[in-house]
Write a structure and sequence with these properties.
alpha/beta; Rossmann fold; 7 helices; binds NADP nicotinamide-adenine-dinucleotide phosphate; SDR_fam; SDR; 3-oxoacyl-[acyl-carrier-protein] reductase; NAD(P)-bd_dom_sf
Length: 242
């Protein structure tokens, strides 16, 4: 049975990823940080729709200690795929952003995904085929003012995955970044209608992406036939910021 961990399963993009992968026959660990009921309800709904697959909610705060991260991973069974769809941002100038917030963004978006990759490697490389996907961003390719630290974490994921892909290339584990432009999810909920309209005007395709526009590509990369694609950052941005 093919099995994946979706970190950030309660988020806008993670939720679509879970739906598409479940439909494609995957069993899933659905990760949450703070919304246990939401992860549990989603797992129950998918289990009813796809009774021959397993759907298990799991909880982890990416601000946890190294010992807690290890304990979390030790409790998991081997998987074919890990998708890192968690993440946070904070709209602020570097000069006024709290340093504790900088630590949090770097930790949740970059440091802990790298540490979890290290801890999960053994559970991935023993499979016939395996995949890691990190959710990057167009801002990892072009830095965005007021999201400088966020941009740095996303650029970091692109270079980390490129380097790590080369380390594990002989094991059938591929490592890629999917880098969306603007996606209609709770991450953008704080923006006014006016700001959303301004950004939409800048996007050549003329609209924000939906979660499904991103999860489609997760499904493609998780297909065993996608094994020749590794170390890449693929921008899914409707032509924006290329
Ligand atoms: N939305 C966009 O326009 C956009 C554009 C480019 C890239 N991305 C990237 O795509 C990914 C998903 O974004 P999204 O829009 O789906 O975000 P979202 O709807 O805000 O969801 C964020 C997810 O991150 C999890 N999370 C937050 N704090 C955490 C922590 N301390 N430890 C572990 N998990 C934590 C949340 O878990 P709980 O809800 O359970 O707390 C939630 O599942 C992110 O990496 C984001 O940077 C998004």
């Amino acid at each position: 049975m093919k099995r994946a961990i979706v970190f950030g399963a309660t988020g806008g993009i993670g939720s679509s990823i879970c739906e598409d992968l479940a439909k494609d026959g995957w069993s899933l660990y659905l990760h949450t940080n703070s919304k246990w009921n939401k992860a549990y309800e989603k797992a129950t709904k998918l289990a009813n729709e796809y009774p021959s697959q397993d759907f298990l909610p799991i909880k982890l705060d990416f601000n946890s200690s190294d010992a807690e991260l290890k304990k979390f991973v030790d409790g998991l069974i081997p998987v074919n795929a890990v998708i890192f769809a968690q993440g946070i941002t904070d709209y602020n100038f570097v000069g006024t952003q709290k340093m504790t917030m900088m630590d949090k963004i770097i930790n949740i978006n970059l440091t802990v995904p790298i540490k979890l990759t290290h801890l999960l490697e053994d559970k991935l490389v023993k499979q016939e085929f395996s995949r890691i996907i990190y959710l990057g961003s167009v801002y990892g390719g072009q830095g965005s003012a007021m999201e400088a630290v966020y941009s740095a974490t996303k650029a970091g994921l692109s270079r980390f995955s490129q380097a790590y892909a080369r380390e594990v290339v002989s094991t059938n584990l591929t490592v890629n970044v999917l880098a969306p432009g603007a996606v209609d999810t709770p991450m953008n909920a704080m923006f006014s209608e006016e700001t959303i309209a301004e950004v939409t005007d800048e996007i050549p395709i003329g609209r924000f992406a939906s979660g499904k526009d991103i999860s489609y590509w997760v499904k493609v990369i998780l297909n065993p036939q996608s094994g020749y694609l590794t170390g890449q950052t693929i921008y899914i941005s409707g032509g924006w910021l290329l």
